[in-house]
C-alpha cells in the first residue's frame, strides 16, 4: 500500500508552527489528554527527535491529503495564491459563498433546488443561515398549527431513521436538513438511501427491502417516491478523503446534486470569517460589549490562534463571556480554559 502524505493547514510541534509543511502520515487525528493531534513521520524535519512525532491540530480540517509527488515538490503555488489574496478579498470571497448558501437554501424551500451538499469546518456559522431560512419557510405552518414542511436533523442517524425521515418529508416543497450527520456517509445502507434522495432523475424512488416491524407499525411503505429537497451539511471536504471506497461514494453524491464548498481552508480564512461576523454586528450582539473590548477579543484570538482549542464562533463567544465577567483577569482565564495545555 502506498504511503499517505498530509499538508498541515494549521498546526504546531513543540511550539513551532508547521503550517504548510508536508509529512508522511502515520496515524490520523486523535484526541488525547492535551488536545487533538495527528501522528506523522519525522523525515529529518526535526533532527534529534523521535521518528514518529505528534503535530498538534484542532481536528481533521487542519490537514489535507496530498500526493507523493506533492510531498517532494516545493509548496509554492497554493501558499503563494493564498498570500496573494488580501484580507478584504478573502472576506469578500467568503461572504459571497455564504450569500449563495442563503439563496440556494431559499430555493430549496421553494422546491426549485432538490439537493445540496454544504462543506465547511465546524464553528464558522454554516448552519446558521440555513436554519434561519428554514424558520422563515415554516413560520406560517407554525402559526396555523400545521405539520412543519421542513426539519433540521442533527447528530447520528440510523439507516431506518433516515428512511423514516425521508418519508416524512417526501412531499413537494418539503425540506430536510441533515446537519453534522456524517455517520450517514460511513454506512452503506444510509449512503444508498441518501443517493436515492439526491438522484437527479425525474423520479426518485426510495426503498427499504428488509422486514421492519417499526415501519409496519408506523404505516410507512417499503417504497415511496421522494419529491422533497435535501440539504446535507458536513465538516468533511469530499476531495480530501483517504478511503478510495468512500471517495467513490462521495463522488457519486456530488454528481447528483449541488456541492458548495465554503472555502474556509486555512486558519486565516476562519479568523477573517469571525472578524467579518463581528464587524456585521451579529457576533457579540447580545453581550453589550464596547467596540474596544470586541477588538481586544479578536486580537487575542489572532495572537493565540495556534494555541486555542478551536478557532470558531463558539470560541469567540466563550472568550467574550470571560471578557465581560472578568474584565481584569479574562486573558489569564482564557489561557487556562480555552487553550491547549
What does this structure look like?
This protein is an alpha/beta fold and 341 residues long. It folds into three domains: 79 residues, no CATH class; 175 residues, P-loop containing nucleotide triphosphate hydrolases (Rossmann fold, 3-Layer(aba) Sandwich), CATH 3.40.50.300; 71 residues, no CATH class. Helix content is 41%, strand content 19%. A five-stranded antiparallel sheet has the order 6-5-4-1-7. Helix 3 crosses helix 10 and helix 7 packs parallel to helix 9. About 4% of the residues have low confidence.
CATH topology (fold) name of the largest domain: Rossmann fold
How would you state the average pLDDT, rounded? 87
- Which CATH architecture of the largest domain? 3-Layer(aba) Sandwich
How far apart lie the N and C ends? Answer: 36 Å
**Could you estimate the helical fraction of the residues in percent?**
40-55%
What characteristic shape results from the CA principal axes?
Answer: globular
Poorly predicted segments: 69-81
Classified by CATH, the class of the largest domain is Alpha Beta
Number of strands: 14
Count of discrete alpha- or pi-helical segments spanning 4 or more residues: 13
Order of helices and strands: EEEEEEEHHHEHHEHEHEHEEHEHHHH
Q: Reading side by side through the largest sheet, how are the strands ordered? A: 6-5-4-1-7
Measured on Cα atoms, how large is the radius of gyration? 22 Å
Biggest sheet character: 5 strands, antiparallel
In percent, how much strand structure appears in the residues? 15-25%
* Class by alpha and beta content: alpha/beta
Count of all domains: 3
CATH-defined superfamily of the largest domain: P-loop containing nucleotide triphosphate hydrolases
Amino acid at each position: 500500500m502506498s504511503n499517505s502524505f498530509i499538508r498541515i493547514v494549521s498546526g504546531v510541534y513543540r511550539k513551532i508552527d508547521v503550517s504548510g509543511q508536508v509529512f508522511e502520515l502515520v496515524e490520523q487525528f486523535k484526541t488525547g489528554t492535551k488536545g487533538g493531534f495527528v501522528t506523522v513521520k519525522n523525515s529529518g524535519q526535526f533532527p534529534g527527535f523521535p521518528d514518529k512525532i505528534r503535530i498538534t491540530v484542532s481536528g481533521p480540517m487542519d490537514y489535507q491529503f496530498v500526493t507523493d509527488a506533492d510531498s517532494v515538490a516545493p509548496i509554492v503555488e497554493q501558499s503563494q495564491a493564498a498570500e496573494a489574496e488580501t484580507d478584504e478579498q478573502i472576506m469578500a470571497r467568503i461572504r459571497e459563498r455564504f450569500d449563495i448558501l442563503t439563496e440556494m437554501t431559499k430555493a430549496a424551500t421553494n422546491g426549485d433546488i432538490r439537493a445540496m451538499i454544504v462543506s465547511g469546518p465546524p464553528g464558522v456559522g454554516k448552519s446558521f443561515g440555513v436554519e434561519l431560512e428554514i424558520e422563515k419557510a415554516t413560520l406560517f405552518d407554525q402559526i396555523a398549527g400545521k405539520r412543519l414542511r421542513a426539519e433540521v436533523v442533527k447528530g447520528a442517524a440510523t439507516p431506518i431513521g433516515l428512511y423514516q425521515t425521508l418519508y416524512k418529508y417526501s412531499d413537494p416543497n418539503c425540506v430536510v436538513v441533515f446537519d453534522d450527520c456524517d455517520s450517514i456517509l460511513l454506512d452503506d445502507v444510509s449512503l444508498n438511501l441518501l443517493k436515492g434522495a439526491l438522484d437527479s432523475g425525474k423520479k426518485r424512488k426510495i426503498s427499504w427491502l428488509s422486514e421492519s416491524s417499526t415501519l409496519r407499525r408506523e404505516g410507512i411503505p417499503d417504497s415511496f417516491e421522494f419529491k422533497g429537497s435535501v440539504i446535507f451539511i458536513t465538516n468533511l471536504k469530499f476531495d480530501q478523503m483517504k478511503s478510495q471506497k468512500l471517495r467513490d461514494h462521495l463522488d457519486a453524491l456530488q454528481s447528483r446534486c449541488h456541492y458548495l464548498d465554503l472555502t474556509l481552508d486555512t486558519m486565516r480564512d476562519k479568523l477573517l470569517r469571525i472578524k467579518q461576523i463581528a464587524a456585521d454586528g451579529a457576533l457579540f450582539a447580545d453581550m453589550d460589549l464596547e467596540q474596544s473590548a470586541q477588538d481586544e477579543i479578536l486580537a487575542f484570538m489572532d495572537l493565540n490562534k495556534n494555541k486555542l482549542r478551536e478557532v470558531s464562533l463558539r470560541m469567540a463567544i466563550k472568550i467574550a463571556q470571560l471578557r465581560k465577567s472578568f474584565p481584569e483577569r479574562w486573558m489569564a482565564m482564557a489561557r487556562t480554559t480555552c487553550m491547549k495545555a
